[in-house]
Each structure stands twice: as C-alpha cells, then as structure tokens.
Amino acid sequence: MKKVSRYHIVKWIGVAVVAMGFQMDGESVAAKPAAKPNIVFLLTDDQGWADTSRPADPNIPDSCRSFFHTPNMVRLSQGGMNFTSGYSPAPVCTPSRRSIQFGITPARGGASFKTDFDPAGKLSLAQMIKKCDPAYTCAHFGKWGEYLIGNTGEYNSDPRGEPKNLGYDVSDGFTGNEHGSCEGPMKFTLVADDDPKRTCTMTAKGIAFMKEQAAKGSPFYMQMSYYAIHRAPQAKQATIDKYASKGDPRCGEMTMNIPPMLEDLDTGIGMLLDAVRDLGLEETTYIFFGADNGGAESNYVKPHKPGKVEPDQPGLPNRNAPLSEGKHSLREGGVRVPVMACGPGIAKNSWCREPVALYDLYATIHGILGAPFQLPDNLDSVDLRPLLFNGGKGSLERKAPGLVFHDPFKVRPRSALRQGDYKVFIQWKPGGWETRNLELFNLAEDIGEKNNLAEKMPEKTQAMAAALTAYLHEVKAETPGVKKWVDEKE
Questions:
Q1: Which of these, 121, 163, 375, 379, could form a disulfide with 171 (CB 3.0-4.6 Å)?
Q2: In angstroms, rounded to a whole number, what is the distance separating the alpha carbons of residues 275 and 278?
Q3: In terms of C-beta distances under 8 Å and separation of at least 24 residues, what long-range contacts does 425-429 make, across chains too?
Q4: % of the chain residues with pLDDT over 70
Q5: 348, 368, 398: which is the final residue of a domain?
Q6: Based on the domain organization, do 225 and 175 belong to the same domain?
Q7: pTM of the entire structure?
Q8: How far is it, in rounded angstroms, from Cα 334 to Cα 323?
C-alpha cells in the first residue's frame, strides 16, 4: 500500500482556472471528455479578483466593478464554473508562470525571478501533454516570463527556458513586459494605441493557429498569455473616450487607466471565443482562465500629466477592496484572482468554493487527456475533475498541507498557507527560519484579513504554521532574506 504523505490534507485545491462551458444547461454530469479534447488557457496579467463586471463571489456584491464593461469575461463566467477562491501561485508574474508550467508551488520551484530551478528530468506542461499524446500541437502566444529558467546572465538568456525547448511547437519566443507595448520605462499615463498591449496581434495569432489545427484535424493546447492589464496602460482611443465620457467613478479601486485597457482585453477574448464557436470546436474544447497575480495596489489616482503621478486620494478604499493589499503581497489582494472553467461536462453558471491554484491546471489536463502514465510525487498540482464534473462540490487531496505561498526576499519575508477557510501567515526574521510574527484569519468571515485570530486560536495557528514550515523545509524552499528580492522587470 502506498504511503500517504504526512502533508496531505483533504478538501482544498488551488486553480486560478476558468473554462468555458458549452454543454447543456442544468445539473453537471460526469460527462466523458472527447477522445482528443483541445485545451485553451487564457492567462491575464495583473488582473485583480474583482476586475470584471460580474461578481467573483455572488455572496459579495462588491466583488466586481460596475464601472467596468467585460461582457466576454462574463460570458465565460456564465458559461461554466467559477472558483470563488481561485489563486495565482505567487504575487508576481514570473514565479507564477514557472509554477504553472511545471505544476509546482513557487516554494518548490523558485519564488523569485532568477532561481536555481533546473528543468532537467522534469516535464513542462507542453511536454507532459505531448507525452500523453504525441498528436497534440502546443502553442504559446504573448508574455512568457522574465528569467523563467536560470539565475545568471541577461534577461531570459538561458536556452533551457525557451518555449521551443519546453515543448511548444509555436510561440512568440522569449517575451516579457517590454514586448507588450511596454518599451522604455513603465509609464503610468494611459495612451491610445491601435494594438493596445498587443491584444489584437496576439488574438489574431491564436485564431490563425486554431484554424490551422482545425483544418488538419489536429488536437491542440494553446496558451494565450495576454500582456494586459499590466502597465504601461494602453487602450484604443474609442475605448478611452468611452470611459472619459462616463465621468469620474470615485470608487477608489483603480485609476482611470484600468477600465479601458481591461475592456480592450475583453474584446480580444471575445473574438477568440467566437472563433472557437465558428470553427465548430465548442463540444471538444476546454477553456481555462486565470491571472498571474492580483491587481497592483493603489487608491484612486487623479488623471495626471505624463510623467507625473498625483498622490492617492485619502479616505478611499484600496483598488482591490474588499480584499486587502495587492500585487507583491501574500494578502488576498495579491494572490486571489478571477477563476472560471468551462467545457464538456462542466455545468454552466456553476460555483465552486474550494480553494484552488493555477498550478492545478497541470494535473487537471493530465486527467482530462486520460494520460497512460502517473505524475511524479514531487508535484503539487491536483486534478480538479472531481469538482469540475460535480457542479463544484466535492473535495481533493493534496500532497502539500494546503495552498502554499512563499515570498522570502522582501524586507519582511513571509510565507502563507490556506487550509479550508483559514489562512496563516508567518513573518520571518531575515536570514533564516526564525519566526518574527504569526497571524491567522478566517477568510469565510473576514475576507479583508482585518481580524487576527492568532491569540484566540493559538493551537490552530501553531499547527498550521508547523505544517507550512515542514513543507517549506521538505521542498528546500529559498531561505527568507538570504538574497535581495529580484524585481528588475516588474
């Protein structure tokens, strides 16, 4: 009998995924997927949990932005399953992207931009898909990630990290923020652009790829890693004018830069969804959606002149409210992101409250493809099919003690663990594994992480902290505060 890891805990999964449901309305059924289903993964950049025009949680009305207009993201939401507790693996882009590609937490694979992670002997997502079935063609369009593999040299210089060397037949190559219309300094001022954030170009490439595979009858995996809504902010002039005419929202959750950029992104996603429909691929395609980290934290900022950022307006909530903090933070605003999922056998307009993370996409695709081999034990990804094909109800078993987050290189290094409704934070003393402070929150009752329960629930706090610490040591996670946190390209 196989020994069960001491870290396993039932009932949590982490997948910031959204798949598009094309099946009949009604209760979910344990539908058998197509023999060779297509997989599309839409990954957005810096999109906060509430950055859509439909609530991320139907029980929390302010978990969306009425000022925004995202009809195609709403179309995804209504067409499949919504994960109210969906998470990015990390609070910044590259650790999340590495995590997704290899089905591991950043604690195991590297929590910074440059790491010692070695892909040798490991299968990337595309390589795993090809091992499942060599008939698959794999493509990646858009932002790949800064320093995905390696810790020396110039930006993305390690050939081990190239898409073509990790199983992708078609890609844009080594790409990062500067390739998404971000040449030069990361400007804050919204500017008009005919191809904002390369959304139009990327979408056209994705549609052309799907047309080619459909014509050949070839199954495919396609990842669309959009550059939006990362700064520098860009949008079409007509979209900018639309929001300018709406007036000042005074809601404190964004600058006026975000809504037009987000809507242009949404339009591109809609074109891609239309292509799936028009090519007759709906009944054989799963579409997953997520974001690489939460929204950049800011209070409402006045429109400003180029190169000049006006101070935040006092008394207005954080842009990511009701979540606390934002990008770069392990608080909910930095790692909780919009997640949805649709495809054959997934009930439309369904909701799942199990915590999931984007690295779960790895094992989920492995399961959907009916792989003839088992995944290795040194992965953290969990197959989400028991939830996807059961109306969002059910539980999963993880090797890790829950959803693990590790951010060891800040001035105040932290790690966090979510188990069920509870989330524990460990603040470390830099330079080792000595605890500076512990916090515990019940997210079901306190989504804003305002009420620290560590003193009221010391046994639970200590037990969760011990489980988290044991996992970090087991996977040889980077020691808190030993080296400077790398942020050159963010």
A1: 163
A2: 5
A3: 425/330, 426/465, 426/468, 426/469, 428/480, 428/481, 429/480, 429/481
A4: 83
A5: 398
A6: yes
A7: 0.89
A8: 9
Q: What is the pLDDT of residues 278-290, one digit of tens each?
A: 999 999 999 999 9
Burial code (b: 16+ CB inside 10 Å, e: under 16) for 53-86 equals: bbbbbeeeeebbbebbbbebbbbbbbbbbbbbbb
Element (H, E) at 54: none
Q: Both 312 and 427 in a single domain?
A: no
Going from the C-alpha of 473 to that of each of 205, 247, 285, 478, the distances in angstroms are 43, 52, 39, 9
Q: Which pLDDT tens digit goes with each residue over 25-81? A: 333 333 455 679 999 999 999 999 999 999 999 999 999 988 899 999 999 999 999
In 33-123, which ranges are E strands?
38-44, 81-83, 86-87
How many domains is the chain partitioned into structurally? 2
Range of the domain at 461: 403-474
- Flag whether 179 is in a domain: yes
For residue 408, give the nearest of 208, 113, 83 by alpha carbon. 113
DSSP state of 433: S
Say which amino acid occupies 445: E
CA–CA separation, 210 and 282 (whole Å): 12
State how far the Cα of 198 lies from the Cα of 268, in Å rounded to an integer: 10
